[in-house]
């Protein structure tokens, strides 16, 4: 016999009899019986008809006409928003707001991992810059030292250290940013439904997709490097044929403009390859083909959102890193020859680079992931799939790990 506090035998497994209906109580029924309490005005005795107020004698002022909803009108249901975004096609404001909510809802996983990745990528470059500033500092204090052979060797060594550290920094950045993008995308996929993942849980879900992620990044590097290799070959051929400096400068200018257009085009076309790898479980080539398909028909909108996000993120990152970069530069140049100043300079520059990248990495990954979700909603009605799942999860009272499977291509009308 039930005590009135547990689910009834008819309640489906996993559901609670005390669980409220999704998101809000159902609106009051418009079919109200005459004389019921809902129709009795406040202060009027129950069972009596409401009294009509007499009109004052004389001409009555005209009353404005306010159109009322038709009989039986029901307002549209509110948009479901169980997590960081409303489950409908998104605008730019929704994506920016959703990315901020992603960071705020899971700061340890998102900002913590971003800080580690940014620090690993910033330290080698900061050390190289400190060497260069230290070698140039004595030239600023004593300009005649520029002709000194020892000073020249120190300067060359400093620049070699900077370029070497830059290559090391880019190599580290290639690895950590690829891994970070995968982890953040997986956290975002769960946050859409209002669920949270720790960094360890996200890594367990992503580690099987790491080879495919590196495959996508490697293919992108090849695509971006092909025009550079062609340019070098053409430039060497022109120099061998005796082309002057003016012709080479003109070639460089034309190539620079064309390469920017080339880079932006393919960067936009393959913007959704990483989310397709992580959330849909696709291979590198299939994920790039999938991204191309999703961007088709909405190229300029996707391009504009990605470009605006990059400009916004770059501006904020510059503001965050500027004070530390200036302070580190001054320490390095004005305290030439001092090991303490070189260390302080490297630390300050590293802090500035870490702060900038710690903001840049998750924000760009978040906007890219939400833009991917928006394109699936617009081109495949994927918002209906998400809404159905969200209602069921709201009834159950929690977000199950099976929510991740909704991103699989089998739930896509275009797959």
Automatic annotation (TrEMBL):
Residues 19-29, 56-67 have a biased composition (Pro residues). It comes from the Bacteria. Residues 30-55 have a biased composition (Low complexity). It comes from Nonomuraea wenchangensis. The keyword Transmembrane helix applies. Keywords: Membrane, Transmembrane, Transmembrane helix. InterPro entries: DUF7847. Residues 1-75 are annotated as: Disordered. The keyword Transferase does not apply. This is Membrane domain of glycerophosphoryl diester phosphodiesterase. Residues 94-359 form the DUF7847 domain. The chain crosses the membrane at residues 110-132, 167-189, 210-239, 245-265, 299-322, 342-372. PANTHER family: EXPRESSED PROTEIN-RELATED, OS08G0107100 PROTEIN-RELATED.
């Amino acid at each position: 016999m039930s005590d009135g506090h547990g689910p009834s035998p008819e309640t489906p497994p996993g559901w609670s009899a005390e669980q409220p209906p999704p998101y809000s109580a159902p609106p009051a029924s418009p079919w109200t019986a005459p004389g019921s309490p809902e129709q009795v005005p406040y202060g009027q005795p129950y069972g009596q008809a409401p009294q009509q107020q007499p009109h004052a004698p004389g001409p009555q002022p005209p009353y404005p006409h306010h159109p009322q909803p038709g009989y039986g009108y029901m307002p549209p249901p509110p948009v479901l928003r169980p997590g960081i975004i409303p489950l409908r096609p998104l605008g730019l404001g929704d994506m920016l707001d959703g990315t901020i909510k992603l960071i705020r809802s899971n700061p340890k996983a998102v900002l913590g991992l971003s800080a580690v990745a940014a620090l690993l990528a910033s330290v080698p470059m900061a050390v190289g810059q400190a060497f260069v500033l230290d070698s140039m500092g004595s030239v600023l204090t004593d300009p005649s030292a520029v002709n000194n052979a020892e000073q020249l060797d120190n300067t060359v060594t400093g620049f070699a250290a900077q370029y070497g550290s830059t290559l090391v920094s880019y190599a580290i950045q290639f690895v950590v940013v690829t891994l970070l993008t995968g982890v953040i995308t997986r956290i975002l996929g769960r946050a859409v439904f209002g669920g949270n993942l720790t960094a360890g849980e996200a890594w367990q879900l992503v580690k099987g997709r790491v080879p495919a992620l590196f495959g996508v990044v490697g293919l992108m590097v090849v695509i971006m490097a092909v025009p550079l290799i062609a340019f070098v070959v053409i430039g060497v051929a022109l120099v061998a044929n005796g082309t002057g400096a003016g012709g080479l400068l003109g070639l460089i200018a034309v190539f620079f403009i064309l390469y920017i257009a080339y880079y932006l085009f393919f960067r936009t076309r393959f913007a959704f390859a990483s989310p397709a790898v992580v959330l849909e479980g696709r291979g590198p080539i299939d994920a790039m083909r999938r991204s191309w398909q999703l961007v088709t028909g909405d190229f300029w909108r996707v391009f504009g959102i990605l470009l605006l996000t990059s400009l916004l993120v770059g501006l904020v990152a510059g503001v965050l890193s500027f004070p530390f970069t200036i302070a580190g530069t001054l320490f390095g140049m004005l305290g030439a020859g001092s090991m303490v100043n070189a260390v302080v300079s490297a630390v300050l520059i590293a802090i500035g680079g870490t702060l900038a990248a710690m903001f840049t990495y998750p924000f760009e990954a978040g906007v890219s992931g939400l833009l991917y979700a928006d394109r699936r909603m617009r081109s495949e009605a994927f918002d209906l799939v998400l809404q159905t799942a969200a209602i069921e999860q709201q009834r159950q009272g929690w977000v199950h790990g099976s929510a991740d499977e909704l991103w699989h291509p089998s739930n896509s009308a275009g797959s």
